[in-house]
Amino acid sequence: MSYKIGVLNVQRCKRRMRTHQTSHDDNIKVKIVYKTDFIDEVEHCLKYYMREKKYRKYKEFYQVDTDIIKKMLKECDRMSVSSRKTINGKPHKGGYFIYIDKEKS
């Protein structure tokens, strides 16, 4: 089974669902609701790690077990909280550039 991953704003939920229902053969049903203070970070993280499980190349449909999605949601949320604490914990001096390259095998 494939799943669409995305943020649904409560106020726009019904309108978005109607839009999706008319553009897809199968009706979309909400399977998982996850609440977080870091919506954008968690969504980006989840889609990043799920990219290999994409059902269609340019669509946000993924073929993965819901238990894995739930675990990844919690992990991405935990990483968002930890990252914000690290970034906000010390004053920023600036003036640095970081270059990241792949490790050679």
Residues in helix, %: 40-55%
* Residue runs with pLDDT of under 50 for 5 or more positions: none
Terminal CA distance reads 36 Å
Strand order within the widest beta sheet: 1-2
Principal-axis shape equals extended
Radius of gyration: 17 Å
| Secondary-structure content class | mainly alpha
What is the typical, i.e. mean, pLDDT? 77
Number of domain modules: 1
For the sheet with most strands, the description reads: 2 strands, antiparallel
Treating each run of at least 4 consecutive H or I residues as one helix, how many helices? 3
The count of DSSP E runs of length 2 or more, i.e. the number of strands, is 2
Q: Helices and strands, in N-to-C order?
A: EHHEH
Question: Into which percentage range does the β-strand content fall?
Answer: under 5%
Q: What key phrases describe this protein's structure?
A:
105 residues; mainly alpha; two-stranded antiparallel ribbon; 3 helices; 2 strands; 4% strand; extended
